[in-house]
Write a structure and sequence with these properties.
This protein starts with 6 loop residues before the first strand and ends in a 5-residue tail after the last helix. The protein has a 7-stranded parallel β-sheet, sandwiched between helices. A two-stranded parallel sheet has the order 7-11. Helix 4 links the parallel strand 5 and strand 6. It is built from 11 helices and 11 strands. It has 284 residues and is α/β, with parallel strands linked by helices. The protein is globular.
Amino acid sequence: MTDSAQFTLVVGATGTTGSRVAARLVSAGVRVKAASRRAGSVDGARPVRFDWDDPSSYAGALDGTDRVYLIPPLGSSDPAAVMVPFLRQARTAGVRRAVLLSSSAIPAGGPAVGQVHQALPGLFPEWAVLRPSWFMQNFTGDHAHARTIEADGTIRTATGEGRVGFVDADDIAAVAVHALTGTPAPNTDLVITGPEALSYGDIAAIVSRVTGRTITHRRLTYEQMRDRLAADIPAEFAAMLAGMDRAIAEGTEDRTTDTVLRLTGRPARGFHAVAERELGGPPS
């Protein structure tokens, strides 16, 4: 099969970043396999069934594929257990470039997806690890914060006054497409943030202005956050996420980078603009 006929496999193609990556690739004329557990339809892409927990789904997804965009299995505290065997199979099948979605909070060799990050350079000649900060869409989509904003006008975290360089998922996707298609490959990790670091109190104030509702940040302790999360997800994963909140409170995410501008040629979008786009203006 010639290079021009090969596919880019987008894992999680119906999700927050995967759907945006698939759409951008299709618009650029790239042949895309849109991978999801139910092989959901994605405009312009070939749907393919893919389930991290079902290795029998791997071969069909990889057939004719030379690049992959990787979303780790949701809620897993040890994604390397399934991802690394898949990545070895991908390399054998002819994949040359892999772009992994990780987190600004997790370095190479760190917990969870940090183990996959560490393995990636040894598996592929071309690679990138995207390490975005927290998504702006956490407050506008179907995330827990968006649900509590809608339900009772609160955002609950254990972050205190800590600030985060929240980033638009559209900007993450733009960087991902560059990492998948650009020459040469990044062959590095890319910390991706928005243009300013904001506290959750700042976020609540902006959502209040945009929606015309009163939104407040309700501060929880680490233990309260951990137990709240553990009602819906495995305890070990809940503890890790609550620990990330505690790290934010300690200042670890109070930073911004120029990655979006450097790779896409345009500045990262600010939260107010994204909130206006996705939540609408205040009532007249």
